[in-house]
Amino acid sequence: MERILGGLYISSIQPLLDKVDFKKNYNITHILSVLPGPIPNEDEYLKNYVHKQIEVEDDDLTNIIQFFPECNKFIDSVLFPQGFNAKEKKPQKHAGAVLIHCAQGCSRSVTIVCAYLMRTYGLDVEKALFAVKRKKADISPNDNFLEQLKLYEFLLNKDDFLNDKIYRQWLLMHNVKLDPTGSQLIQEKDFFKNDTGIQENGMGKFIELRCKRCRQRLASSNTFVPHDPPSSSSEDKQSLFIRKAPHSNRIISMEQGANFCSHYYVEPLRWMQEELLKGELEGKFKCLKCDAKVGGYCWQGSRCSCGRWMIPAIYLQSNKVDACEVKKDIIHSVRVNSNNDSIS
């Protein structure tokens, strides 16, 4: 059992098996268990401590990032019951003490503690891991959890990162490991996005994608999933389209990716729901008005003309749609009208 910082402690399950008196020895009043199943001596600990449990496995498939907000809130309730102020120059003293534990004290509990240090003290992943490792040398979060910590670092400034498009895209990609058809995740309530089309992108520029044939509105830039074209350096293999001889690794040709993108990758939209719920590995999207082919999807991923792989790939084809820029004053007018319920 190790004290990481102030009233923040971490351990394996062993101290609970040994019936350690955490209150007497460490002034700990709260316990956060990060493992499935009952904890040792559960009756005693549930009676004498405020206890919270996150039942997750230590494996390559577990989505642990979804529990970061509630774990942070639980730890805050102990260390900073009056609220944490990140703008204060003088470090705030911890008001209480909390124990975070898993089975071995090396992966799940470490991930939760690192996420808390990152959010509370503005640390990046490497510094958070170092802060824990200097007190507990045998830490080893699995690669899946490390990937999620890096994602969390990117999403830290988002007010509600669980509804952010970057997180939702990662969630789709992660879910393909569990279900190659993606159907398990997209059947969840409210997963499909309603594209209202009245929010600008923060730069005064707003794009609508419309069917080339009938001008039906299909998506807006609010729903675009960004993808950066791969670097043209030799180290980024996605920038090259390599053709090999049949049944051989011999390279026949090698071409640089295009300087334009042939696809608009988007979040799963409400009008796509019927097609995506078929449980197929891949399929096509037709315009909901004129039935023209406008895009498609592939849960195992597809490659844009720029060379970038997107997994999964839910897209509209640039040669099947028109990208129309909507001016900022029009967006404002639409927003006002929407607030007055004048838009159907």
From TrEMBL:
Enzyme class: hydrolase
One MF term in the entry's GO annotations: preribosome binding
Keyword Hydrolase: yes
Key words, A-Z: Hydrolase, Protein phosphatase
An example Gene Ontology CC term for this record: cytoplasm
EC numbers, comma separated: 3.1.3.48
SUPFAM superfamilies: (Phosphotyrosine protein) phosphatases II
Annotated Tyrosine-protein phosphatase domain residues: 1-158
GO biological process: ascospore wall assembly; cellular response to nitrogen starvation; positive regulation of autophagosome assembly; ribosomal large subunit assembly; ribosomal large subunit export from nucleus
Active site, renumbered: C102 (phosphocysteine intermediate)
Positions of the Tyrosine specific protein phosphatases domain: 72-136
Pfam families given in the database record: DSPc (PF00782)
InterPro entries: Dual-sp_phosphatase_cat-dom, DUSP12, Prot-tyrosine_phosphatase-like, Tyr_Pase_dom, TYR_PHOSPHATASE_DUAL_dom
Family designation: Belongs to the protein-tyrosine phosphatase family. Non-receptor class dual specificity subfamily.
Name of the protein this chain belongs to: protein-tyrosine-phosphatase
Organism: Pachysolen tannophilus NRRL Y-2460
